[in-house]
Amino acid sequence: MFVTNLVKYLFLARQRELDQYYNAPETLQPNVLRHLLHRAQDTEYGVHHLFGNIKNYEDFAQNVPLNTYEELKGDIERMRHGETDILWPGRVKWFAKSSGTTNDKSKFIPVSKEGLQHIHYAGGFDSVAIYLKNNPKSRFFDGKSLILGGSHAPNYEITDSLVGDLSAILIENINPIANLVRVPRKKTALISDFEVKRERIARETIGKNVTNLSGVPSWMLSVLTCVLELTGKKYLNEVWPNLEVFFHGGVSFLPYRKQYEEMIPSANMHYMETYNASEGFFGLQDDPADSSMLLMLDYDIFYEFIPMDEFGKENPTVLPIEGVETNKNYAMVITNSCGLWRYVIGDTVMFTSIKPYKFIITGRTKHFINAFGEELIIDNAEKGLEYACQQTGAEVLEYTAAPVFMDGKAKCRHQWLIEFTHEPADIEQFGTILDNKLQEINSDYEAKRYKNITLQHLEVVKARHNLFNDWLKMKGKLGGQHKVPRLSNHRHIIDELLEMNQ
Question: Are 185 and 146 in contact (CB under 8 A)?
């Protein structure tokens, strides 16, 4: 009997519990909020904000302010130095390093024991539970899981305290039993030099029976390319014939899907999107035919949402989950068991369904172009590029875009710097198709493009091979969960890249 046929029974109870997301989603979040407030009521933050007196969501919203990293940074620094009972009970030993700020400084997101178990590992368990439910003939556990992670380092001089990529923290603390079915070995997985790690992972895994992959699409693609180079094979299923699923997240899969499908031409290959950020595990794709994700409502995360047309205002409307509507863009706010209280994480989402609550990631609150009122978000960009690639046979590996505020002829436009895996025959035609598609899917962009009065036709600049990786390496961000900002409302990033594009 296959191992998977035995192990899959461990997931049956959770598969039944997930039915609540469809049948009674409104009952889940109030329980989460009560639990978080009760656990943290005696912390310094809980005492200051009267957690013990909070009876309902309205009290919570009134007593606790919205926070960005800057508001919590001082408390987090104290936690990093070993102080206890600050934002969460006890001592938090792990801190996920995230680089999502406009000033290019790092954020250090606390990761508590409860956060590891009841958020991040819970999401990993549910990923497998949902996958097995959708694929009853799976042989998932009959082989190895290739899990791609980053690296970590000691946190100051605090005993047993670590700072680094979330993926590295997860690998460091993973149940030893899981290591029996995971590759590469931990020592290799945590190497900080991605170029060294890439080849070592490839060499360690070539002879294994890999059935599933987990990681960021861009970095996983680099490892898989190395596997093919070392083996001399054309297709990955020649190396791993039982490979059946890739759990991906971190960046949109759209620009990479065609490359994966060409590399793994198998009808038995599946792709499942996950939304696991440093701040929490938020979503899972539960339906292979639907690209939107299920919002995970019974982890240690309480959700709120700010309509993007009010984001940045002094007193914006803030909605609990039952107040959201479909087809509206929201900034996501979370409260979790790692000590993040009403924390604006910087991601934007749009709900496609409210029973169950399903959503797509539309971008970042800071990663957009709105220099001329066009309100271009990442979701627009990804759809536009996907269409341009379909029409021209091109494949995009990496890209970034930014406004050109005014050139020598007083003309304004968007400038796209794109690294192609397969170049279009005519880059100008590619740009025209992309420009037209953006107008079709974004009425604000279309209005600003009208008769070239405000915005002129976008410009596409071809990036040299490995430009984006070289830029990340220069920034000390090659590998792990790091990624190039897709859209910027300024030119700092694109100008650095253009300077290197020689």
Answer: no
